Amino acid sequence: MCESYIFFCRLHVALFFGSVLASACPKSCLCSEKNGLVVVQCASRNLEKIPSDLPRDTVSLLLSSNHITKIPGQAFKNLPRLQELDLSRNSIETVEAGAFQGLSEGLRVLDLSNNLLRSVPKEAFARLQAKIRLSNNPWHCECTLQEVLRELQLDPETVNQVSCHTSIQEEYAGKPVIQVLDSGINFCNFHHKTTDVAMFVTMFGWFTMVIAYVIYYVRHNQEDARRHLEYLKSLPSTSQANKDFDVVSTVL
């Protein structure tokens, strides 16, 4: 009798928590719970954005193989216990600066591989201690990406798959970013040099315009002066006018 009572109590508790979990789970996903830890399975659900009604006790959020294009600011702010976040195989092009704000240092894995990322703001990964997978994205290698990678703990198994799809220095396109940086290349220095060259070209252009204007102004004034001088020459001189006046006086 006692054992039967305990069994029904456990069943009641299980059904109760199961109903609570089901009500908190996004309708496009499947949620499972064990020892108070919630796993949310949203992979391959044709999602276009990150669900907003996620259980607060979620420790694993699987969002791979969807159609998500953007990670907005504070998208995971209500998930303080999250340990694994899988966003691989989406179409993510934009990661906002505060995208992972609110995630604690308990996050262990962040997977952004196989997306459409070309660059990310360095503030996006602030305070994260997780191993991050950034492989198979069309990265543009320049100063910002270099500064981002300097602050991250890249997954060692995929680090060589983080390659320069394009680069401010074309000869590095197609090469692993870490390999390029380990060779001593500093994209930030090149960025400064490029800025200096651009500034020099701009200043030279303005200087050329000023010189051209001065030359035009001088030549235009010279032409006016020449015409004025020719006009003056065409006028009767004062001595000739006096002689003509004397002749007329003599005749009279």
UniProtKB/TrEMBL annotation:
<dbReference type="InterPro" id="IPR001611">
    <property type="entry name" value="Leu-rich_rpt"/>
</dbReference>
<dbReference type="InterPro" id="IPR032675">
    <property type="entry name" value="LRR_dom_sf"/>
</dbReference>
<keyword id="KW-0677">Repeat</keyword>
<dbReference type="InterPro" id="IPR000372">
    <property type="entry name" value="LRRNT"/>
</dbReference>
<keyword id="KW-0732">Signal</keyword>
<dbReference type="InterPro" id="IPR003591">
    <property type="entry name" value="Leu-rich_rpt_typical-subtyp"/>
</dbReference>
<dbReference type="Pfam" id="PF00560">
    <property type="entry name" value="LRR_1"/>
</dbReference>
<dbReference type="Pfam" id="PF01462">
    <property type="entry name" value="LRRNT"/>
</dbReference>
<feature type="transmembrane region" description="Helical">
    <location>
        <begin position="197"/>
        <end position="218"/>
    </location>
</feature>
<dbReference type="Pfam" id="PF13855">
    <property type="entry name" value="LRR_8"/>
</dbReference>
<protein>
    <recommendedName>
        <fullName>LRRNT domain-containing protein</fullName>
    </recommendedName>
</protein>
<feature type="signal peptide">
    <location>
        <begin position="1"/>
        <end position="22"/>
    </location>
</feature>
<feature type="domain" description="LRRNT">
    <location>
        <begin position="24"/>
        <end position="60"/>
    </location>
</feature>
<keyword id="KW-0472">Membrane</keyword>
<dbReference type="GO" id="GO:0016020">
    <property type="term" value="C:membrane"/>
</dbReference>
<keyword id="KW-1133">Transmembrane helix</keyword>
<keyword id="KW-0812">Transmembrane</keyword>
<keyword id="KW-0433">Leucine-rich repeat</keyword>
<comment type="similarity">
    <text>Belongs to the LRRC3 family.</text>
</comment>
